[in-house]
Amino acid sequence: xxxxxxxxxNGSVYEGEAFxxxxxxxxxxxxxxxxxxxxxxxxxxxxxxxxxxxTYPLIGNYGVNRDDFESFRPAAxxxxxxxxxxxxxxxxxxxxxxxxxxxTGMPGITGVDTRALTKExxxxxxxxxxxxxxxxDDVLKKLALFETxxxxxxxxxxxxxxxxxxxxxxxxxxxxxxxxSILRSLSKRGVNVIVFxxxxxxxxxxxxxxDGILLSNGPGNPQDVAYxxxxxxxxxEQLPLMGICLGHQLFALANGAKTYKMKFGHRGFNHAVRTLxxxxxxxxxxxxxxxxxxxxxxxxxxxVTHEEINDQTIEGLRLKNHSAFSVQFHPxxxxxxxxxxxLFDDFLKMIAETSKExxxxx
Length: 362
Fold this sequence. Notes:
The protein is α/β, with parallel strands linked by helices. The chain has helices at 38-42, 97-104, 114-124, 137-145, 152-156, 180-187, 202-206, 229-236, 246-254, 342-361, and strands at residues 3-8, 13-20, 25-32, 50-54, 58-59, 78-80, 83-84, 107-110, 127-132, 162-164, 170-175, 192-197, 212-215, 241-244, 259-275, 280-292, 302-308, 314-319, 324-327. The chain is built from ten helices and 19 strands.
């Protein structure tokens, strides 16, 4: 295997061996603490524009299968591992992770001290990084000039409206970079899902006569998706609404809150979250580098419903005056525990109750 170098913007260099696609990339470097679920993570569109460091030491041991994709191609710009599995074994596997990475154009590096690298990211915060075949001072100069793409949602969203039809309740899903597992969670509940591009206006969504609105997850800085805020403000006044991950952050911005970039974010599926009203604790799947700012929330109509127990990050919100709520984590999991999947059922109950009230007042 040929040598490959991971170069961080602060000058740190990690040497390893190349696998996957034979290309050089620059991206934001973040770490994921999951012990499995690498296929779902790599194809989660919330990772678009990011290079993933997997903290678990062995990655790829069960290969890649056809069922666990969250999108059709890798969303991550590259992956960094301590050891890539040489002999993957699983009855579902189609090919090895390196074979799939090469066939889909995603580069990787193995043989890296990911423990030391993760400690550095925790200390310094998420950083810009380059994956290159040869190290020189020019790499650092290029990194200094590199800027994170501000059109990540535009690139990730569907370009056309489409439907997953059933005869059940109808939900308009605004796609900011959705995971397939959200569609699976809704499908098994018999929901008729109509998926809209991120830049759709409220009038177009309402013309489909949905019973509720779901704002999906997605990549990047929520402030780069400000064009969606007027749509959210209109829709939340007319229909029950739920937001997930980036959808949670956009829901907050639409209601007067602020967001901020976290030092190194939450990425993995072992994050404990407390539901404040029930004193309930769930282990959750998370992938976000931005969070809702607590300062100034008392000047809005938003109420905090969930908190991360380690750093008290806001993990859930609801509106005082409308049937609308959001969560920062992924209730669909994939990968991760399904502790919080009940939130989809809560959303459907909210839709049913709102429909009943509307009928009674008609």
